Amino acid sequence: MSMVTITCPQCSVDGKMSLLDNRYNGPYRCWKCHTALLLVMDNAEVISCTPMSEEEFTHHMELKKQRDRMNRD
Ligand SMILES: [Zn+2]
Question: Which contiguous run of DSSP H or E holds residue 54?
């Protein structure tokens, strides 16, 4: 598990997230300005971090929940 730093493209504040894998493609919310972001990481490095709508964020949270459920089985 590794800790990665995500810099918010909206307010430039640094946030931290723990990764089980070195890859991630999913939702992230800035702790400071609460912007919904779509985060893509590979090799524990941020590839892209783009703002998305609340609707998209909810959709991605659902996908993540499904993925997490599958990983448990
Ligand atoms: Zn922010």
Answer: helix 54-72
